[in-house]
């Protein structure tokens, strides 16, 4: 029982955190059709920005805001490379995430030791004396352990963050600016004939997508207990897998908001991974399992698409599940 | 109103496939005129529209709207005062947005797209009325995604949406070509009605000679980047579909087809 409950808490915690990346991908990948590789870098950048502030004793909430801004900034750079310099989406992401490897490394060494050289193993440890999010108001009002269940603070914190960011995204997509963003992904020429630059909407979308990834990175430090240079690896797969699993598993549930589906997708994905680990799979196989589950999700969602195309009625009520 | 002056357009300059489409091409359109443009494929009709809207660059020349040169103004800014309906009905609407959301976007053209509510609730009634005036039953489907509509329905919406906000110019790029004859007729009637009601200046490229004669105050025929036929006023009133067809055949024979 204890094992079961703690397993649930583990995958719920990571599910909530990675749901933020998946929501970011909902903007860049689903709405704008942009396979954004920048996330590997911005996830870590968010963690670094947060970690540096926290390790210097600055309020972690400010750290979270800084993480958001850093993600927004580098996502915007990806967008600018694509829109202004006409570089292909995949390459833009690879370029920015590559340059971020250096940026993150230098930021950590410079931030901790005042040394700009950078060392490949540079990491920010999160000792017990640090005022992290789970230690400051109002999360510290929650007991971390009730009976046999531990890790409650993290769980509540992550849940609250996910809900807040989901509601913000839902609200944003319903604003004029959000409507224009969705239109830019749907039909860029239409936005042009509305006398608006579709490129600006794309840049904004990529900025927000990466800001979400960076916040996820910052929150993830609470689970990992440190900020290390390999944290970002695999985040593209985690984010996209969560997104695609969520959207395809719940594709027939029209009443559910896409953002809700995406969060559930992230939880399902993490549940699968956690179960595989608990069944005795060595952790070295983690990324292999991640890739395999993602592949299965991709194949299934493609199958579903073909099926729905074949059975779709001409005036099919495939209505507004997009907002 | 609109004047094209000495336009030169060369495709693929400096390459083996270099092709000069326009050389010192000029055309002027008066305010309130409904100009029909006919001509064979490759004669430069759509290129001309693209040049006016800024979708393709030109090598030389001036495009004057109300006496102001707009060469160098980016495409999206030119649409401040230009409305355009494309041949492909999918181009005029956003498939994954609902009808209401599409209408709200069009309604807001030219203004700032900030963080206020995307669909203004108080406007929905008006959208419904406008849709009802199309007579296609769209007013009952306002929460359906535009992608689920038929080509004709989408084109009708596109036409309605383009003319919702004040514009100087309506550009119609073979906008009935992808529709079945009955729907095409409907869209064309709607076009005539809207242009007359809003007193728009319209430029319509079409392969349907009957529409060209019936709706245009002025007809031009283009051929190899030039205007081979230009009639307006009394002269135009006497022009028949047969005249146009005859000229078409003549040109084709000249080309050795």
How does this model look, in words?
The complex is a heterodimer of chains A (323) and B (257). By secondary structure, chain A is mainly α. Chain A is built from 11 helices and 4 strands; from the N terminus they run ααααβββααααβααα. In chain A, strand 2 and strand 3 (149-150) form a beta hairpin. In chain A, helix 1 (2-31) packs antiparallel against helix 8 (198-224), helix 2 packs across helix 8 (198-224) and helix 6 (176-186) crosses helix 8 (198-224). Chain A is globular, with a radius of gyration of 20 Å. Chain B has 2 domains: 28-56 and 72-92 and 151-254, Rossmann fold, CATH 3.40.50; 94-148, no CATH class. Chain B is 34% helix and 24% strand. In chain B, helix 5 (151-162) runs parallel beside helix 6. Chain B is globular and about 55 Å long. Chains A and B meet through helix 6 and helix 7 of A and helix 2 and helix 3 of B.
Helix/strand layout:
The complex is a heterodimer of chains A (about 325) and B (about 260).
Chain A: H1 2-31, H2 39-55, H3 60-85, H4 89-113, E1 124-125, E2 145-146, E3 149-150, H5 152-173, H6 176-186, H7 188-193, H8 198-224, E4 226-227, H9 235-249, H10 258-278, H11 286-311
Antiparallel strand pairs in A: 1-4, 2-3
Helix pairs in contact in A: 1-5, 1-8, 1-9, 1-10, 2-3, 2-4, 2-8, 3-4, 3-8, 6-8, 9-10, 9-11, 10-11
Chain B: E1 2-11, E2 19-29, E3 34-39, H1 45-53, E4 60-65, E5 68-69, H2 75-78, E6 82-85, H3 99-107, H4 124-132, H5 151-162, E7 169-173, H6 181-198, E8 201-205, H7 209-215, E9 218-223, E10 226-232, H8 233-237, H9 241-254
Parallel strand pairs in B: 3-8, 3-9, 6-7, 7-8
Antiparallel strand pairs in B: 1-2, 1-4, 4-5, 9-10
């Amino acid at each position: 029982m204890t094992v079961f409950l703690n397993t649930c808490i583990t995958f719920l915690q990571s599910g909530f955190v990675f749901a933020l990346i998946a929501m970011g991908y909902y903007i860049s990948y689903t709405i704008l059709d942009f396979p954004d590789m920048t996330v590997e870098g911005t996830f870590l950048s968010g963690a670094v920005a947060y970690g540096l502030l926290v390790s210097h004793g600055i309020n972690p909430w400010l750290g979270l805001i800084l993480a958001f801004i850093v993600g927004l900034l580098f996502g915007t750079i990806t967008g600018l490379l694509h829109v202004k310099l006409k570089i292909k989406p995949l390459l833009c992401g690879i370029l920015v995430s590559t340059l971020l490897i250096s940026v993150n490394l230098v930021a950590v060494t410079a931030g901790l030791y005042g040394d700009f050289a950078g060392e490949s193993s540079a990491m920010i440890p999160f000792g017990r004396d640090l005022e992290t999010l789970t230690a400051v108001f109002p999360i510290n009002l929650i007991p971390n352990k009730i009976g046999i269940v531990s890790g409650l603070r993290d769980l509540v914190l992550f849940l609250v963050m996910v809900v807040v960011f989901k509601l913000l995204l839902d609200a944003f997509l319903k604003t004029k600016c959000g409507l224009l963003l969705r239109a830019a992904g749907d039909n860029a020429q239409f936005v042009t004939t509305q006398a608006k630059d579709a490129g600006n909407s794309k840049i904004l979308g990529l900025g927000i997508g990466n800001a979400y990834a960076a916040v996820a990175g910052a929150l993830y430090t609470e689970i990992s207990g440190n900020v290390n240079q390999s944290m970002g690896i695999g985040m593209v797969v985690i984010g996209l897998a969560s997104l695609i699993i969520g959207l395809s598993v719940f594709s027939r549930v029209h009443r559910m908001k896409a953002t809700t589906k995406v969060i559930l997708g992230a939880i399902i994905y993490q549940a699968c991974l956690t179960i595989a680990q608990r069944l005795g799979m060595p952790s070295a196989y983690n990324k292999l399992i991640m890739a395999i589950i993602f592949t299965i999700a991709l194949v299934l969602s493609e199958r579903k698409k073909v099926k729905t195309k074949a059975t779709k009625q001409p005036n099919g009520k495939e209505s507004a599940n997009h907002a | 109103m609109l004047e094209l002056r000495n336009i030169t357009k060369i495709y693929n300059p400096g390459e083996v496939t270099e092709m000069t489409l326009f050389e010192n091409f000029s055309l002027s359109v008066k305010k309130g005129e409904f100009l029909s443009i006919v001509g064979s494929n490759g004669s430069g009709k759509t290129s001309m529209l693209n040049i006016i809207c800024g979708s393709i660059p030109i090598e030389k020349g001036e495009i004057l709207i109300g006496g102001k040169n707009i060469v160098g103004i980016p495409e999206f800014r030119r649409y401040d005062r230009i409305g355009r309906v494309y041949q492909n009905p999918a181009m005029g609407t956003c498939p994954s947005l609902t009808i209401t959301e599409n209408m709200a976007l069009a309604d807001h053209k030219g203004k700032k797209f900030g963080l206020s509510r995307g669909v203004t609730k108080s406007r929905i009634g008006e959208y419904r009325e406008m849709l009802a005036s199309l007579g296609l039953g769209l007013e009952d489907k306002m929460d359906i995604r535009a992608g689920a509509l038929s080509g004709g329905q989408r084109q009708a919406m596109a036409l309605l949406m383009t003319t919702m906000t004040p514009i100087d110019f309506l550009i119609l790029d073979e906008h009935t070509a992808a529709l079945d004859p009955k729907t095409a007729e409907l869209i064309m009637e709607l076009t005539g009605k809207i242009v007359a009601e809003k007193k728009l200046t319209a430029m319509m490229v079409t392969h349907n000679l009957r529409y060209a004669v019936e709706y245009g105050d002025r007809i031009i025929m283009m051929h190899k980047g030039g205007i081979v036929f230009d009639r307006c006023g009394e002269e135009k009133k006497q022009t028949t579909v047969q005249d146009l067809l005859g000229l078409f055949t003549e040109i084709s024979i000249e080309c050795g087809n």
